[in-house]
Amino acid sequence: MTGDIVSELERAARRRFVRWDGSLWKEIVGGPARALTDSLHAAGLPEAHSSSLLENYLRLACEGIGLGYLFPTSAGATSFFTLAWTRLIPRGLASLPPERQAAALADCWNLAENLESSPVWLRRMFLRLCDGGQTLGSLPSLVADVARRALEPPDQTLSEAGEIAWIAVSDEDRCFLPGALHFVAPTVVCVHDRLRTAEEGTDAVSVGVWLSKPALALGPMPCKEAPKNGIDPDFALLEDLARRDRRAADWFDMARNEWRAAVTLDTSQFLVALLPAEP
Amino acid sequence: MPAENPLTRLLQGRARAGPDMSVHLSERDGANLHDKMRQAYWWIVNNAVICPYYDVEYGKAAAPLKNAAGDEVVLHDSMSYSSFVLIPMLTLFTCRRALLIGGPGRGKTTSAILMALVGGMTRDDVRRSIQRGHPQLSIADLLGSPLPSDMMKAEDMSQIKVGWRKWIGQRVKIIDEYNRIPTKTQSALLSLMAEGYAEMFDQYVYAGRSSWFLTANDDAGGGTFQVIEALKDRIDVVVRAVPFNSAFLPTLLARLEANQTPEEMVPTEIVFTSDELERIFKAILLVELPDAVRERLSYFLGQLDFCRMASPQFESKSKDTLRLAGKTVAEICNEQCPLDKKVHLCTQTENGVSARAYQTCLHFTKALAYFRGHAEVEAEDLRQIIPWVLHEKLVPNARSAFFEAKGRRALLQDRVAWIRNMFDMAMEEYPRHEPVRKKVRVLRAELDKGLQGVDLKSVEKRIGQVTQLMDQLVGKSELSGPVYEDVIHLKSMYSRYQNYAHWLTQNQAR
Fold this sequence. Notes:
The complex is a heterodimer of chains A (279) and B (510). By secondary structure, chain A is of the alpha+beta class. Chain A has two domains: 3-150, no CATH class; 163-275, no CATH class. Chain A has helices spanning 3-16, 22-30, 32-42, 47-66, 80-92, 98-116, 120-131, 139-151, 236-244, and strands spanning 163-168, 178-185, 188-193, 206-210, 216-220, 251-256, 261-265, 270-275. In chain A, a hairpin with a 4-residue loop joins strand 7 (261-265) and strand 8. In chain A, 37% of the residues are buried. Chain B is α/β, with parallel strands linked by helices. Chain B is built from 18 helices and 15 strands. Chain B has helices at 33-48, 83-94, 108-118, 123-129, 139-143, 148-153, 183-195, 229-233, 249-258, 274-285, 291-302, 319-324, 329-332, 355-371, 379-390, 415-448, 456-476, 481-509; strands spanning 15-17, 23-25, 56-57, 65-66, 72-73, 80-81, 97-101, 131-132, 144-146, 162-164, 172-176, 197-200, 203-206, 211-216, 237-240. In chain B, the strands form six sheets. Chain B has a five-stranded parallel beta sheet with strand order 8-11-14-7-15. A two-stranded antiparallel ribbon of chain B has the order 1-2. In chain B, helix 15 (379-390) crosses helix 16 and helix 17 packs antiparallel against helix 18 (481-509). The longest helix of chain B is centred in the C-terminal third of the chain and has 34 residues, at 415-448. Chain B is globular and about 85 Å long. The A-B interface holds A 15-19, 49, 52-53, 55-56, 59-60, 63, 66, 98-99, 101-103, 105-107, 109-111, 113-115, 117-118, 122, 139-140, 143-144, 146-148, 150-152 and B 1-2, 5-18, 20-23, 25, 31, 39-40, 42-43, 265, 267-270.
């Protein structure tokens, strides 16, 4: 890695960006960028090709820092951009076919930047999926899969023989007491804390859950809504649920659509989800 | 997969891999321009202009911290901004005219220069285009002059080409120490500011949509020349320079040691292109002004022009009548007027405000709401903006009994505090008057639907309603500024209905 490029990029970035973070730049140059250099070297790629890839990686990292997409490790928060630039790219770029490598960098940038202006649940979804072992090469198929499963109406509708899933929404927040809930996408539900509600412009404490198979807790999601649903006594599946699982009783709130239903209970930190049965 | 699923486009964006294996990043489209505005504001506040306090404050005020002598410090629980940077920024984006006042060396010109740089001008352009006021500044110095060769050869005026000064067409115009410009040159400046063009030898130059920043060393016209009234009236907003707080001395030292001025460090990220400025200008105009906020503005401003003692003729009870007669409010606002001087605002000012001032208030309030990222204006936006817009427009009646009460004399020395105090007083009274105004609004709304097809019987019924409300206001309420406005408004409705009824009667007779 040539020091010239690093200092030249930094000098230009200092002038361009209001939010330039010099220490984060050092962190990237000394950590993930070095790891990427090593992996490209180990893959035996031509020197000019590796240098070009590394320069592109650093230039985009520079832009990401300036625009506030990239978080330092000390921030306690993360983003897809941070995940991609600190882990996915340094670990996975060298293993891609050389002719796909620049395109993979561009894909990563586009996905990260588009997610910045996307709903929180979508950002969380990609963060969770990519954190859980997705590789750089599988990004296009992952995007297509998420697009299909999260935003499009599912093929199967809810029926009596549906599956029941118990989701521990308090895993990331021990104090979380599931309360009111509402759908933010056909298969994504936002569960609000019963006590920490939205007040005077502040966000409610809420957790997102993707009611897919298997269900995926998406973690905390700021939400300004104050859902009020109540229990629908005519919803036959609830009765069926209580019959099938004796733990499911004393409903607190429920949300349902044609394809999914979710219920919170008076005395439980779990969310009960009803999913269509496998065909 | 259906084509409209937006998630399928997640991998499309401004990054593209080129055939040479490099990744090209195209420019951002600046989708969120108010974010950029705020970014520019914070950069200036944090890096360029030292602001010892933030005086445009939002949120709830906690109980003030007080001492025995009555000094108070109020702390608010939400965002606050420095008017010294914020108001010039809003001027830049609304293409209006700001006057920056304050003692020498307080950063007035620096602030104006920063606005020009943020507005996309280069440092060289800014330096060349600043017009510095001095007693010898002629019209030719300010606007340009005819080309000498043409003067010799020309047989008529159209053959004389005028070499206009380049600054006239710039998006940001800076006139430094405008109160040192001689009166005749001020008139040329006035026509450029007011009409947007200048004329010389039958040739015209147009200023275009632009933001003006004028500086003056004090706001009392203490320069070499008295500023002509009309020029003062064209200034939309006043910005007061803030005093330097010695706690910021290390910042000054760091600048000295770095041998760099803030203007040299403006990041390109906060520089707006002319297209972005244009988009912001249009977006500001689209910010919603809710009826409730608009009503508050008219309630406050509408009562300022009223003077019960100005004339026995009802329609002429305004301060303009006094002005035309060469009288002042101070001369006639005495105990013969039954209105309580501690409550009614009319006693506090020598004048009312023009329609231009109303428009300026609306424009800046919208700009402030936009800057805060809001789609509609809040009443607090109005409260924060009004003192700066009316700063040079309202003249206090220093002899009013209102200012004789304990602690109020000091309001005469600080127009921002005085105007804000007046606004707060008005807002306290507003809920009491609102039910009457609501009735007037209902009648107005009915009239605004149009008179086509309305028969004589209905018109007479409406005239009856209008007269009844007028009777109630004149007979049972104290004739104050807001009541006067409503009565005048009702009378205009009455006249329109009467004219229509008259026309209907004549037509039916035929």
